[in-house]
Amino acid sequence: MSETTVSDVQRRRRRSLLWSLALILSLSMLLPTLGYVMAQTGQEVQAQAQQGFGPERATNPRSDMWRGAREGQTGFTTQTGPYVTNTMISNVGETWRQFRMGPLITYGAWLLGAALALVVLVYAVFGRIRLEHGRSGKTIERWKFYERCVHWFTAGSFVILAITGLSLLFGRSVLIPLMGREAFAAYAEIGKLVHNYLGPAFSVGLLLLILMWVRHNIPNKVDLAWFKAGGGIFLKGRHPSAGKLNGGEKVWFWLGVFVFGLIVSISGFLLNFPIFGQTRETMALAQAAHAITSLLWIGFFFGHAYIGTLGTEGALEGMTTGRVDVNWAKQHHDLWYEEQIARGARPQPAEATTAKTGAGAGTVGQPSH
Amino acid sequence: MARMKFLCDAERCIECQACVTACKSEHEVPWGVNRRRVIVMDDGLPGEKSVSVACMHCSDAPCAAVCPVDCFYTTADGIVLHDKDLCIGCGYCFYACPFGAPQYPQQSAFGVRGKMDKCTFCAGGPEPTHSEAEYVKYGANRVADGKLPLCAEMCATKALLAGDGDVVSDIYRQRVMRRGGRPQTWGWQAAYGTT
Amino acid sequence: MPYKAMLAALAVVSVALLSACEPDVIVHEPGVYKGKPDETATQEAAERRAQPLRDRALTGMTDR
Predict the structure, then answer these.
(1) Where are the domains of chain B?
(2) Of residues A320, A330, A321, the one with CA closest to residue A350
(3) Contacts for B135 with CB less than 8 Å, ≥ 6 apart
(4) pLDDT, tens only, B84-129
(5) CATH topology assigned to domain B4-192
(6) What is A107-345's CATH topology?
(7) Inter-chain residue contact A106 with C18, CB threshold 8 Å
(8) Cβ separation of B68 and A168 shorter than 8 Å?
(9) C3 to chain B, closest Cα gap in Å
């Protein structure tokens, strides 16, 4: 009996302790916000008072003018010229400067470093994806000549644009200490010209890529299964089916070429041709979008370039010679291969150079290396 | 050490554009480039004010911070100058500057920017003082002769002040102390005080 | 709930990103510039012209 009362008392005490603690906590958070309430009502009272008092009690017009100027209000100016603005104080500049010199440069460098490290890590852990059944010695056409031309033009200009763009962003912290100001300025001058002239051509290349390959890139259920199977990289021994382009390639197409390409092209256009009356706000925003997207894209590109060259045996020749080994096609793009055969495509013997490395059509099941 | 500053007395500026004209004429600034401009706030309304704006020679200059080729430098007395031989005309200083001071001559089609040009506080640039190269690239070097920027020196109402920040603020403070009238008023009393 | 979690994650990420902003005001030190020499930029030149410019401001900018 007494034990229960003691526990009751204890429980009550504990409960009151808990409640008072909660009360203290909530009050300590709520009470400071009273200031907002006071300020809010105070403002309203002041506004009412001003209405009542008339112009003599209005705000100081001198202060109003300077306040407006500080907030970026525009005025009137008789001067003309492409770079004359009627804004006395533009506030976007300092924000943009903080963004560019702080997060953009710091985390941009981290992002690129992380992307490179990821590629190295994937190579170190999973290694190169070999042709499981060696080379068959027979090849099938994968990319037509004009497709390869557009791909390599776009890829080449992407690399040049990336190098010149990154030089402008990181040059002051990386290249100036190495080259000195004069040499870097000369390089940056050429780099800027190349970037500005190649940019529009690159956009045209992107447009051609999209027009050429959009029909191969319609997502379907096969891609879902491909992703579940880890794309055949991360889970050994699983061979997800794929059509002409697999899920990963479709992501590169839609996110990389299409979305990133669109953002980079539009923002680049705004920056490249300052003749449409763009304001500084527009151009600073465009620069931010251009830089963020380009950095993400370059990071993504490391992955694309790795998988297409070092990461997958037999992949690069599809884009250089236009023909891939039949065993490669069966391993990576089985549905596409079957479709091609059903359409009446005949695999042809590989040229002497590629046939030498292959062990012939009969050695199914034996790794060639 | 003295820090060179501009100050425009908005009560006195009468938007005569003489500072703009003087600057253009003194430095032979190319067409389309405006190192100085007059901005009228609340044009045509009561309380209208005009302010002459150029490079404000910031202590923590945003243009110098964002320049990819690092072409800006500051003189010992706080004048922000730049090297046109290094400038690549990327336009970043124009995005970053709150006052719209950096200007670019357009050399070719599609708005390709030339080398940036801005107010030098009449202090020339990184070329031998009073040389032909300095005049062509940066304009006259008046400061080396012990003269202040022409825009301020020839301002008829002495609205635009230039020089050692301490002196300029002293002059302005004395003016403000003499001034009468309510904040709404403008005119002789507000600009020149009761003399 | 995932929406809220996403918002929270977004807030954390943006705060982390903003932490890279320069906290201090940089006063560009005269003489740090290593480009072409400019004799008007040196300490001596500034000291030499400081007094004449001060006198000129006092004679030219004040009301007569």
Answers:
(1) 4-192
(2) A321
(3) B28, B124, B141
(4) 999 999 999 999 999 999 999 876 666 678 899 999 999 998 989 8
(5) Alpha-Beta Plaits (3.30.70)
(6) Fumarate Reductase Cytochrome B subunit (1.20.950)
(7) no
(8) yes
(9) 36
